[in-house]
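User: Here's a protein and a ligand (S-adenosylmethionine). What would the complex look like?
Assistant: Let me lay out the input and then the predicted complex.
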Amino acid sequence: MNRQKSFENNQPTLYLVPTPIGNLQEMTPRAIDILKMVDYIACEDTRTSFPLLKHFNIDTKTIAYHNFNEENSSKGIIKLLEEGNNIALISDAGYPLISDPGQVLVNEITKHGFNVVPLSGCNAMLNALVASGLIVQPFVFIGFLDSNTTQREKMLTNYKDLPMTMIFYEAPHRINKTLNSMLKILGDRKCCLARELTKKHEEFIRGTLSELCELENLKGEMVIVVEGKQNDYEINDEDIILALKKEITEGLSKKDAIKKVSKELAINKNRVYDLANNL
Ligand code: SAM
């Protein structure tokens, strides 16, 4: 067990600092303060982060934290923490660790007993999810699928029965192939493609996978939000009534039984509610 009271000890700290995904106004005052206060800023790419730091007059020393060599980079950062330094980790944009480097470092740091303190802020998948028009909870964040079609379709096969909304990241040069793989493996589901979030050309394309496959020349940074598997009508009413009766016999109120059954069977609460009313 590892308990961290973030602001009640004097341990050196790694701050996880999100940075804007397109709109510089989304940099928070706390993020700027922390980046000015720490001894080092570990960057995914120091050259990419330079303009951002310059814009906010942050002249803290930067060091590189590489995706392709997380183990070695982590060792260097642990050493700096052992020497009493505070460090902030930033990625090129958005949250560190979310489809970006940092996972190995956070694991190592918690093992060594130093603090890991996350700041709130920008992240592409949440912007896309909340504006998608699809059911927001529960959701699962998948991130990037494999660039190889066989591997990508294998991954999608693993996810195709998930009943929750799924969120994917994709690069523009692969978007058409990916949408076609999704249509092939997941079927023609509702989806939303969110482009250029927080930027001048921000766009939400809400429709079905087959409609999105028709689009050409999709450009910019993009997130794909796809509806989860709709189980409702594969589960018949008798099964739902049986599950409700079981929960009620075991002591749940009707209200709690409705909640539990709709969650466990991943079916619409209104349908369970209507059936429960006839019990
Ligand atoms: N760490 C970032 C985050 O918290 O969202 C994600 C970094 S990942 C390497 C880059 C991918 O995030 C892009 O290929 C795209 O799928 C998504 N992304 C980043 N910025 C975006 C934006 N402004 N609009 C849409 N998608 C974006």
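Summary: Residues 21-22, 91, 93-95, 98-100, 123-125, 169-171, 194-199, 221-223 surround S-adenosylmethionine (CB under 6 Å).
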